[in-house]
Amino acid sequence: MGMDYSRAADWIVAENTFDPEHLGKCESVMCQGNGYLCLRNATDEFNPGEQRDLFVAGTFNKFDDNEVTELPNAADISRLDLRLDGVRFSLLTGKVESYDRALHLKNGETVRRVVWAAPNGKRYQLVFSRFVSMERLHLIAQKLSVTPLDGAMTLDIAGGINGQMNNGGSQHFSEGDKRLFEGRHMQYIQTTGQSNIDFVFNTTFSFAMDGVPQEEKGFIVMDRRIIKQEYQVAIPAGKTLTVQKLSTVYTSRDRDSEGLDLAALQNKALAGQEEACALGYDALLAESAKAWAAKVWDNVPVTIHAADPFDQLAIRFAQYHLYVMTPAHDNRMNVGAKGLSGEGYKGHTFWDTEMFVLPYFIYSAPEIARSLEEYRWLSLPGAHKKAAGNHYEGAQFPWESAWIDDGEVTPVWGAADIVTGLPTKIWSGFIEQHITADVAYGAWEYYQATGDQDFMDRCGYELILDTGKFWASRLEEGQDGKLHINDVVGPDEYKEHVDDNAFTNYMAAWNIRKALEYSRMLKASRPDLYQALDTKLGLTALEPQWEDKLSRIYLPQPREDLVIPQDRTYLTLKDIDLTKYKNQQNVGSIYRDYNQEQITHMQVSKQADILIMFLLLEDEFSAEVKRANWSYYEPRTLHDSSLSLSTHCILANDMGNRDLAYSLFRSAAAIDVGPNMKTSDAGIHAGSLAGIWQSVVFGFGGVRMLDGKLRIDPALPDAWTGLDFFLHWHGQKLHVTLTHQAAEIQNLTATAPVTFTVRGTEYHVQDTIRVEL
Ligand code: BGC
């Protein structure tokens, strides 16, 4: 019942029963996209409770002054209304005799096979297929095959473009032209209300009987925000009618359409539509599958050798979604916390990018990682605005960001407060400040692993220096002569208005240290660049400040029992019995008993806080300190953010607890591709999916970049016999093959040696090296 992972070895995520109570699960986990657009997998036929979403990356719009900007839910092209011999096709009526919906990760296609008996007893077989092209960013393709099982039939089918969609009631678009071209291509224009982005949709039906193309005359219908065609087709007994519906979407935000007026964009879109229609579903699917292979499956596959194929499925599922969600085509865009798979988090970008998603791309597709960090550089004006608004200097990155010049876009009000009966205020946009150091860290990590000097010269140094400038202005003089960071939210969002959150302070200190180092280095060896940055940022005045402040910033130290206080008061707060919440089915159950104010005063954490610092600043803390803090904080952590488990998994492995690491990996993997039917309703978990890759490669593979050096210290779980993956490092592509006994590292590029350590010994590889473990 429900989800079916039994075909994991065939790259298939499936559901084997239609579950109208849990439509959100497959809509999200089977969403399809290419980073430009993403379509949720709502069934072709309408179902109450469905969430039919289509998002185009970067097309943010603000509905009104009381709301924050969000990705608007664009017109729908996926819905088909079917009548079989006059009876409306709905799985909520009649009898579903067999049912299977499968997402094929390899080619990105979903196929839903249904044998349905109508309430009058007449039986039909329907096969619904669809994909979003990885080759043509604008294309969505659908195919439906209908076979009558009890004699001949008549099919009524209606579909088109429906601009009546909204985001939770907010209508982001005004309606533009509707038109039918050549009797077959339907075109619909819609324009966002505030950001003024034009969307041009085209959609076209075509028909074939037993594979032979067949002309059908449709009846065109135009209504408010709708254009559709209605067809009636007779299907003889024993025959199969195949209906194709090919659709494209173009927008005026597309980089390659900049400067075009609407008429020119319409023409361009129509030309793209005609080209796709000339090829047809099967040829388009073949070229898309080829693009998937070239980009991912033949390029950077991760192979897990294990008796149970689920782990392999989980990592492929994670990779699939990483490419569906990431707008690699445009550096003015970034990854949303729910990718492009749902309305959750409004398409906004968080620290999830640098801490979770970015490492995947640094090591798998560095050019995409660069694009994600260029987005941060392009967003500097918004970061300056935020800093100035708070009376700070330099660049303060927004906790949530959308379009590059939007600045802070975190909503101010959230879920109900069960005590006051009012909405809870969301403080992250005001005081969750560690994001600024996280961004700097991401840029630095990218540079360390790639050596991309061009990026550093254009963007990287500036990002690190400008954020260093922010922190210098942010520090507060304490009575103890130390510099503090008061009144923040750390990664553990269950604690608000805390002072000296350890993660924030250590990361701020790291940021200032790097800024000072780079400033001095540039002055000494890159005078031209130094001068340009000095003029922009005032480095000459900043250097002595950085030096002084770095020596005085307060860094919480381990107590006698080696526990580092997460913030100034955490360790003094009351402990409550957390068993109930530790055993919860769905996250956030503590909010059913306590409000935010009460939770702030208990020793309970939402997610990894201190612990994630041990990953980023690994060599600043001893193994004993890490262990002591794990033992203290993990029992108090509810893992109520999906980001938490993968961090814990990697650390458990670092601490030598492979069994625990493996069980945490399994839990992390099951957040989206698991049995729970409620977890993915608002969208998949972008950071957590990237965290699956990190658990595999950084955790079990033991890969880490430490101060610019590559380390590979594998420790595979007992359930695996081998692990195989690829890493990009300074322009060289490495193939890493691991077993319990040995690590084999092959330099596929072989134009320069790559230096790395295994268990403390240094190696250089220009061809292939085998290291016994
Ligand atoms: C987490 C944040 C995260 C955000 C978006 C929140 O629940 O606490 O750390 O950035 O979700 O994924």
Overview of this protein structure:
Strands 1, 2, 8, 9, 10, 11, 13, 14, 15, 16 and 19 form an 11-stranded antiparallel sheet that branches. The chain has a 5-stranded antiparallel sheet with strand order 7-6-12-18-17, with no helix packed on it. Strands 20-27-28-29-32 form a 5-stranded antiparallel sheet. The model has no long low-confidence stretch (mean pLDDT 97). The protein has 773 residues and is of the alpha+beta class. It has a domain at 33-272: Beta-galactosidase, Chain A, domain 5 (Distorted Sandwich), CATH 2.70.98. It has 19 helices and 32 strands. The structure holds beta-D-glucopyranose. The site of beta-D-glucopyranose has 12 residues, from loops.
Question: Unreliable segments (pLDDT under 50, ≥5 consecutive)?
Answer: none
How many individual helices?
Answer: 19
Shape: globular
| CATH architecture classification of one domain | Distorted Sandwich
Tell me the fraction of residues in β-strands, as a range.
15-25%
Summarize the biggest pleated sheet. 11 strands, antiparallel
Helix-strand makeup class: alpha+beta
CATH class of one domain: Mainly Beta
Averaging pLDDT over every residue, what do you get? 97
Helical content (DSSP H or I, runs of 4+): 25-40%
Number of strands: 32
Ligands (ions, cofactors included) = beta-D-glucopyranose
Q: For the record, give the distance between the C-alpha atoms at the N and C termini, rounded to a whole number.
A: 43 Å
Which fold name fills CATH's third level, the topology of one domain? Beta-galactosidase, Chain A, domain 5
User: CATH superfamily of one domain, called what?
Assistant: Glycoside hydrolase, family 65, N-terminal domain
* Rg (C-alpha, Å): 27 Å
